[in-house]
Amino acid sequence: MMTFHQHLLRALVEARAVAVLTGAGVSAESGVATFRDPNGLWAKFRPEELASMDGFLKNPALVWEWYQARREVIERVTPNPGHYALAAMQAWYAERGGALTLITQNVDRLHHRAGSTDVLELHGNIVENYCSRCTRPHDYRYSDNPDVKEPPRCSYCGGMIRPAVVWFGEMLPVNILAAAHHAAEHCDVFLSIGTSAEVYPAAGLPLEAKQHGALLVEINPHPTVLTRYADEVIAAPSGEALPQLFEQMRLLSSAASI
Ligand code: BV8
Ligand code: ZN
Q1: Which candidate, 47, 166, 42, places its Cα nearest to that of 106?
Q2: For ligand 1, is residue 28 a contact (CB within 6 Å)?
Q3: Which pTM does this prediction carry?
Q4: Which atom of ligand 1 has the smallest separation from the CA of 41?
Q5: Interval 107-133: pLDDT, tens
């Protein structure tokens, strides 16, 4: 059983607005490889080679194949207790007239499958596809036909189809990023969970929240560039920490009938 500082539990129970930024670490316990851990996705390749338009144009089949391999994993895995705890926390705040805004860098949609709503997907999603030339949505899904080895062609303009993720050097969806900044600037508590906090502009959100007066909490079994700035550090896997954190919040709330 983990223990948390009373002032952290009280801050979470009394919070009206909580913002959460998740990264690949939240999906690690579901069996989805992270990016920068030793056995991570980038271990074999450099990000620019694969997760960029240049990389895609240089070697469309390699990049397409890499996404197909990741889609195969994501089709197979399920949300873990950390995903479910975040969905339950979001409902708990809503019942009390508060709000938990979930901002994710992940493209696996496991937060949606765990029941989280209004998820702000900063880096898009790996499930959908669109035309890299005319940007029309393309309705191919991996589950329709896993054996598509090359990027399909757009039926309107013949352009190559690409996954609906945000690549390096590409802008994040403007409205989603604006909503994420708003949540960071107006929250009482900001939880940075399972992210190395290295990829911008997402990585700027935790400090932005702190500068606006939020209590900054990091949940990550390993230190990151953010750790020194965090008010609270929970050095544990999110799949273990989040259910216990939520349980102890509820106990405190009912005991103090806050
Ligand atoms: C943009 C989608 C501009 C694709 C991804 C120099 C300085 C600052 C910025 C830059 C710079 N040079 C270049 C840039 C910009 C660049 C950037 O930030 N580069 C970094 C590397 C320096 N950013 C961009 O290019 C962005 N766009 O800036 O556009 C622009 C402006 C105007 C007009 C045009 C353009 C776009 C960035 C988005 C890139 N897309 N993914 C795909 O998925 O294939 S990024 C990729 O990294 C994923 O989205 C991933 O989520 C993200 C961040 O990684 P993490 O999620 O943090 O994962 P990581 O493996 O790193 O860490 C996992 C953590 O989990 C670890 O800390 C580990 O300890 C922890 N963990 C492990 N197990 C657990 C755990 N935690 C909890 N529980 C566990 N069980
Ligand atoms: Zn097209």
Answers
A1: 166
A2: yes
A3: 0.96
A4: 60
A5: 999 999 999 999 999 999 999 999 999
